Amino acid sequence: MTGRSVLAVVALATSLAGCGGCGRADPDAGRAIEVGVATDAETLDPRYATDAVAMRVTRLVHAGLVRLDPDSMEPLPYVAERWAWRDARTLRVELREGV
C-alpha cells in the first residue's frame, strides 16, 4: 500500500468514527447536571469552602440569600424575602415561605 493509500484509509476511518454516536438513549437525560472539575472539592459546606473547586460546586448546590441584578449589580431577594439593618452591626433577614 502506498503512502497515499494509507493516508486515504486513515482519513476515511477518522471521518467515519466521527459520524457514529454512542447509540444509547439515557432515560435520565435532562434530570442531572454533570460538572467536570480538575480536583476533588475539599468540602461541600459553603461555610468552609475556600478552594476554587469547592466554591464553584457549593454555588451550584446551595442557594444564596440574595442574587445580583445583572444590569445594576444590586442585590435582589432570592432565598431572603427582605432584609433590614437594625443597627450598624445587626442585619435582620426574613426568609421566603417554605425555605
Brief descriptors of the model:
99 residues; alpha+beta; two-stranded antiparallel ribbon; 4 strands; elongated
Query: Largest beta sheet, briefly?
Result: 2 strands, antiparallel
Strands of the widest sheet, in order across it, are 1-2
State the total count of DSSP E strands. Answer: 4
Count the DSSP helices: 2
Our estimate of the beta-strand percent is 15-25%
Overall mean pLDDT stands at 84
Gap between N and C termini: 71 Å
Helix content: 25-40%
Outline the low-pLDDT stretches: none
> Helix and strand string, N-terminal first?
HHEEEE
Radius of gyration: 25 Å
What does this structure look like?
This protein has 99 residues and is an alpha+beta fold. It is built from two helices and four strands, in the order H-H-E-E-E-E. It has helices at 3-19, 52-61, and strands at residues 66-68, 75-77, 80-87, 90-95. Strand 1 and strand 2 (75-77) form a beta hairpin. The termini are far apart.
Summarize the structure.
It is built from 2 helices and 4 strands. The chain has 99 residues and is α+β, with helices and mostly antiparallel strands. The protein is elongated.
Structural topology:
Elements: H1 3-19, H2 52-61, E1 66-68, E2 75-77, E3 80-87, E4 90-95
Antiparallel strand pairs: 1-2, 3-4
